[in-house]
Amino acid sequence: MKHNKQYQSLKIDSDTTNILIEGPVSSEKLSRLTMHEALTAFRPPYEQLEALKEIADLPEGRILIATVNQEIIGYVTYLHPDPIERWSKYPKDNMLELGAIEIAPQYRGNKLGSRLIETSMIDENMENYIIISTEYYWHWDLNYSELSVWDYRKIMEKMMKAGSLYPAPTNEPEIMAHPANCLMVRIGKNVSKEDQEKFKKLRFLT
């Protein structure tokens, strides 16, 4: 399939700062920006910026960013599932995984995560995809948030709901490793019943 992408943007004006949410953005656009020094959840900020540029260059890759004065303070990524994951066995190319979402700590509380996901779904081309997000409690920032696993899970569900992703049952071993883990799913309205059935079988491999 052809991975069409439609640019979206949203300005958030507040008393203290002006935040721009936009995307999908190109690697060229990302090259003109810097990463907030606190965006270290996956790797050092400079290395993560390079990783975002690589994803942006993928045919299916989508990067949406939140910026303040040419500095990236948050982002969300979409790309095909990692080859080592069960979900990569899905036989079509109309599946995207929400692979990473990160907000600089000082900007949390502005619902930026929800707004990034919500903005990404405005693109009508997203209706052509099955979109998944694998939520594992060991990836959550429990130390900074000082929340319990279950309270953090509620926050993640609320954030994903902004993009119409909802928990879906599966017997995937890592999801089943802890009751707080979950598979979040959004099935676009243009996804065929046949493809939905393929995905359902993948969720319950025996």
TrEMBL record:
Top-level lineage group: Bacteria
Keyword Cytoplasm: no
GO molecular function: acetoin dehydrogenase (NAD+) activity; acyltransferase activity, transferring groups other than amino-acyl groups
Matching Pfam families: Acetyltransf_1
Any one GO biological process: acetoin catabolic process
Name of the protein in question: GNAT family N-acetyltransferase
Protein keywords: Transferase
Domain N-acetyltransferase as annotated: residue spans: 21-181
InterPro entries: AcuA, Acyl_CoA_acyltransferase, GNAT_dom
Organism: Gracilibacillus salitolerans
Keyword flag tRNA processing: no
Transmembrane segments: none
Gene3D superfamilies from the UniProt entry: 3.40.630.30
